[in-house]
From TrEMBL:
PANTHER family according to UniProt: FIBRONECTIN TYPE III DOMAIN-CONTAINING PROTEIN, FIBRONECTIN TYPE III DOMAIN-CONTAINING PROTEIN 4
Top-rank taxon, per record: Eukaryota
Protein name stated in the entry: FNDC4 protein
Chain spans, region Disordered: 160-189
GO cellular component entries: extracellular region; plasma membrane
Length: 189
């Protein structure tokens, strides 16, 4: 392949590292050897069990980092980064292997002191969330009550108006009986 020997292809990225490891995302960063015009990057991300492969390609950027999203929790991944130059792409970097975290509330038992602190923090957050939910539900119920009340009032006013109008416009039509039960109820109030 003649393009492999092209003198203007940039060198491969170096120091490829994975940081900010979470259950469903990770950050990849790398360095580019000096002196070459690099206009973008390409990342090949692959599950080690071969189930999923993703190719991320960004041009017109000088970024030296990229967030990998939508990862499966507790899974092994391999990534390789290429630099994109004006005349082609570099060889792929060394393969970097990483594993996403498990998404669980239980923290590893070996970090007992830190674990306690973070667990307390988690519990506090959880209480806050339930508190917030209760407030939201209460507000929604209040609004529902206000709207229901308004509708009831509005219906009564509307009924009064329509009764009055009907009595004014056509006092004895064939369809309406002169003694209307609903009118009687309203008058008796």
């Amino acid at each position: 392949d003649p393009s492999l020997a092209h003198p203007d292809r940039p060198p491969s990225p170096v120091n490829v590292t994975v940081t900010q490891l979470k259950a469903n995302s990770a950050m990849v960063s790398w360095d580019v050897p000096e002196g070459d015009v690099v206009i973008g990057y390409a990342i090949l991300q692959q599950r080690q069990d071969g189930q999923m492969q993703r190719f991320i390609r960004e041009v017109n950027t000088t970024n030296r980092a990229c967030v990998l999203w939508d990862l499966a929790e507790d899974a092994d991944y391999i990534i390789q980064v290429q630099s994109i130059g004006l005349y082609g792409e570099s060889q792929a970097s060394k393969r970097v292997h990483f594993r996403t975290l498990k998404e669980t509330d239980r923290l590893p038992s070996n970090s007992s002191n830190q674990g306690d602190i973070t667990m307390e923090g988690l519990d506090k957050d959880r209480q806050l969330q339930t508190g917030e939910i209760i407030i939201i539900v209460a507000v929604l119920l209040m609004w529902a009550a206000v709207i229901a009340l308004f509708c009831r009032q509005y219906d009564i006013i509307k009924d009064n108006d329509s009764n009055n109008n009907k009595e004014k416009t056509k006092p004895s039509s064939e369809h309406s009986t002169p003694e209307r039960p609903s009118g009687g109820l309203l008058r008796s109030k």
